[in-house]
Records
---
Amino acid sequence: MQTHKIKLSKHYEEAVYSGEKNFEVRYNDRGYQKGDQVKFVVVDASGIEVHSPLNVKTYEITYLIHGYGLKKDWCAFGIKEVEA
């Protein structure tokens, strides 16, 4: 199991935090796998990290898909919050 620290646009912060957005579509340059963990770093439009309660949460990858209409080397994965 790996932990991936990935940037998330502030635009999506509330939807992920509330659980409404429970998936990610990403370029798979990290070798994402089911069971891996994700920690988000919320960034503004300039790519600068901003303070967010989401920055301290951890999520588990629950499902992973590639192909099926996604561009080569891209994937979509389901996430659920891991309770501390």
---
Amino acid sequence: MGTDLFDSWLEALNAHDGDKLAALLTEDGTYEVVATDSRFSKRTAPLAVSSIHDMSSDFSVSLVSIVEDGDRYGVEWEVVGTNDGPIPYLGLPASGRTFMIRAGAFGHAEGGKIKRHREYWDVSGLLAQLGVPPSSVVVYGLGSFSEEASEDT
């Protein structure tokens, strides 16, 4: 597999080019973003890149680490950008704030292309950076956990 796949993946994202990302998938490849419950195929992969670009016209991705074992991989990266566009799937307007997200994925390549890619990143961390307060359920849950933890000490 080598780093050619990841170099091309990084290039596609940083060029904000969904067609380049689609070209990296096998014909039956899937690209899943667990944080947004989204799944993309070769045909719909350009939507993944356009949705990121729509919420941040200046986003850029830098690779942190790659681990490969045969045709399986784990990859970690950071995304930085400015939220200068709306986030429709969350019903949020542009905040104008900058953000940095750490993310990772596990996947399976076939013939030098992505067969299965499952990506994870911290939605609540992104929302906090954009100034969206946590829901009362989250605040209550954290408060309850903190109170219980303090009773044990």
